[in-house]
Every structure is written in C-alpha cells, then in structure tokens.
Amino acid sequence: MSRGEKAQIYPPALPRVVIVNPRIANGTVRFVTPDVATVEGSYTRRDGDSVQTTPLLFLMKRDGDVWRIASVRLLASN
C-alpha cells in the first residue's frame, strides 16, 4: 500500500462492509523494547441507528524516527 492510499477493513465476524472513514481511537501504549510497542485501541462504526465499537491491538515498530503499524488484531468485544 502506498502512502495516501485508503485501507479497507473487513471484520471477520461481520458481513463484508467497506468502512470508508473508520474512527480509530488509541488507548494504552506499552513499550516492549525501545523500538517495539503494543497499543490498545478501538474502531467505531455506525450500523443504522446504532454505534458499534470493536477493540483493536496494534503492534508498532519504530522505523528510524517514524512509528509504523506492523500488525493489527481485532479483539473480542466485552
């Protein structure tokens, strides 16, 4: 994926829908090493009149002066 290209998110437990403008919020950051961190987060989407939130776990790696997402996992909802 090149810079500026939009990603499409397909949650596995839900029907395939393209979330054009996901709302992603970050939470707790834990440094595993100086160059690797885990970040708790969530994304919120509208489903008709209801709003649903899915917890996420990001694995971040430092690439020079920039932090990049190495992987993202969907977590079980509470």
Question: How would you sum up this structure, described in words?
Answer:
By secondary structure, this protein is mainly beta. It has one domain. Helices cover 0% and strands 59% of the residues. The protein has no helices and four strands. It has strands at 23-33, 36-47, 50-63, 66-74. Strands 1-2-3-4 form a four-stranded antiparallel sheet, with no helix packed on it. The chain is elongated and about 40 Å long. The termini are far apart. The mean pLDDT is 78.
Q: Give the number of DSSP strands.
A: 4
Q: What fraction of the residues are assigned to beta strands by DSSP? A: over 45%
In the sheet with the most strands, the strands line up as 1-2-3-4
Radius of gyration: 14 Å
Q: What fraction, in percent, of the residue positions are helical? A: under 10%
Net shape: elongated
Assembly classification: single chain
Topology at a glance:
Layout (H helix, E strand, L loop, with lengths): L22 E11 L2 E12 L2 E14 L2 E9 L4
Q: What attributes characterize this protein structure?
A:
78 residues; mainly beta; 4-stranded antiparallel beta sheet; 59% strand; 0% helix
Explain briefly what this protein structure is.
This protein is mainly β and 78 residues long. Helix content is 0%, strand content 59%. The protein has one domain.
